[in-house]
Design brief:
With 169 residues, this protein is α/β, with parallel strands linked by helices. 20% of the residues lie in helices and 14% in strands. It has 2 helices and 7 strands, in the order H-H-E-E-E-E-E-E-E. The strands form 2 sheets. Strands 1-2-4-6 form a 4-stranded mixed β-sheet, with no helix packed on it. The longest helix is centred in the first third of the chain and has 22 residues. It is globular, with a radius of gyration of 19 Å. The termini are far apart. 23% of the residues are buried.
Length: 169
């Protein structure tokens, strides 16, 4: 290949990469370019949407769309586009909490209270080492609170009671 053709190819690839970055947003990787099996924050939020009957939520504005995840109802992101807060209380979520939420490594606040969530609290939530607030009360969750939640480095306020009721004050 001659040098001129090589330079043109490099220029075309650079423009394509910039276009792709503008479409996927900061901190996100287009699925076609994902190099590892590690899910993106978008993938994890879509798993939550699918597991909890997202189409029938009270408010699902921008969920499962091409909008930046920071524009999805109840989602707050940092400057890198990573999820730091998820607040979907009183939003008619039904079903089980997906274990994938434990991979939102920058999450500091998780509020899923006052929904119709069922099943057990996923052990994987104990991997959320940045978590400062967790609120799951007034759901139909069963089983014990996972001991893995005791591994969190930040104090957990408003944690659920084992019987699903409001936390003790």
């Amino acid at each position: 290949m001659n040098k001129r053709l090589g330079r043109m190819l490099i220029a075309v690839l650079a423009v394509a990469a910039m276009t792709l970055a503008s479409v996927t947003g900061p901190g996100l990787v287009h699925p076609a370019l994902a190099q590892t099996g590690t899910p993106t924050d978008r993938d994890i939020l879509v798993a939550l949407y699918n597991a909890t009957d997202g189409p029938n939520w009270k408010n699902n504005t921008n969920w499962n769309s091409n909008a930046s995840i920071g524009e999805w109802y109840g989602v707050s992101t940092n400057s890198d586009g990573r999820v730091v807060a998820l607040s979907l209380h009183q939003n008619q979520l039904t079903g089980a909490i997906p274990a994938q939420l434990g991979s939102l490594t920058n999450l500091t606040w998780l509020n899923l209270d006052r929904n119709q969530l069922t099943g057990t609290i996923p052990l994987e939530l104990g991997s959320l080492t940045s978590l400062e607030r967790l609120s799951l009360y007034d759901n139909q969750l069963t089983g014990a609170i996972p001991t893995q939640l005791g591994n969190l480095t930040s104090p957990c306020r408003a944690c659920p009671r084992a019987d699903g009721g409001k936390p003790a004050k």
